[in-house]
Amino acid sequence: MDINLRIKQLMEKRGKSQEELGTALGVSSKTAHNYLNGNTKLEANQIPIIARFLRIPVSYLFEESDIQNLLIEPDFLYETKKDCELCKSKDKTIAALEENIELLKGQIDFLKKQVEN
Q1: Is 74 left (phi over 0), alpha (psi -120 to 50) or beta?
Q2: Is 71 helix (H, G, I), strand (E, B) or coil?
């Protein structure tokens, strides 16, 4: 499967528009449209940006796995430095991250039990 088709499918699944993709990449929506339709090739440095935008591992764009089974990664994994600067204190940020770690531990335990059964 072509990477542009994979990106289109993931964008549809996530409810993302080509305008949003263009904004994430710092290009016009027309350029984003050209990327998605294969009229313009993506540059290598754009791949991680798209992965962050879609909240997926970069490798997922190149794998032949089922999109329906993709786990959505939490937004907090992709917070930027700018996002963190918006927090009023480091303690608040640390507490939020610790809470997210506990949630992830719960998800891991749940998934382990599913695999065991």
Answers
A1: beta
A2: coil
